[in-house]
Amino acid sequence: MALLPTRQGGRTITTRAFPFREVEDVYDRMGQLLNRVFGDLSRIDDLPWSPQADIAETDDAYVLSIDVPGVRKDQIDVQVHERDVVVTGEVIRSEDGRWFRRGRPAGRFEFRATMPGDVNPDKVSAELADGVLTVRVPKAETAKPRRVEITA
Fold first, then answer.
1. pLDDT digit string, tens, across residues 99-137
2. Which of 70, 78, 83, 103 is least crowded, fewest Cβ atoms below 10 Å from its Cβ?
3. pTM of the complete model
């Protein structure tokens, strides 16, 4: 650690510097500023987050691939209402040990998507494998493309 000269009461003294103290001070000041502007952000863990997802379309279905690493199938709920698909669940964060970095979200999550065409909600299927939830939402017969034969 470096020794830093500081002034205290009109005299110069030498103290040991904590190398990240200034960064922590800036972080604390930014937190105070954000709390003043947006209100108390200490409860941000109570708000649901949205997992990363892809939505693809095939001739007969919409396919949603939603990243939910570390989540068991009994922690996920999939609902379909008309053309809306809602996936909810919770990632439970381990509190073991001291954390040096937390980059993965935890807590309640919610993913919502509206399919662009009519769907058949009775035939929706979901599969969880390798941390990816795949939801297959079949199109309704009216939404499927029809081949039109050309006559002479």
1. 777 777 888 999 999 999 899 999 999 999 999 999 999
2. 103
3. 0.64
Judged by DSSP in three states, 75 sits in: helix
On the question of pLDDT at 56 being above 80, the answer is yes
Q: Are 76 and 53 in contact (CB under 8 A)?
A: no
CA distance linking residue 12 with residue 124, whole number of Å: 73
Do residues 124 and 142 lie in contact, with contact meaning Cβ atoms separated by under 8 Å?
no
- Is 87 in contact with 135 (CB distance < 8 Å)? yes
Q: Beta strands of the chain (E only): which ranges? A: 3-8, 11-16, 53-57, 61-67, 76-81, 84-91, 107-114, 125-129, 132-138
Per the CB < 8 A criterion, the answer to whether 15 and 2 are in contact is no
Say which amino acid occupies 81: H
Tokens found for residue 150: 């050309």
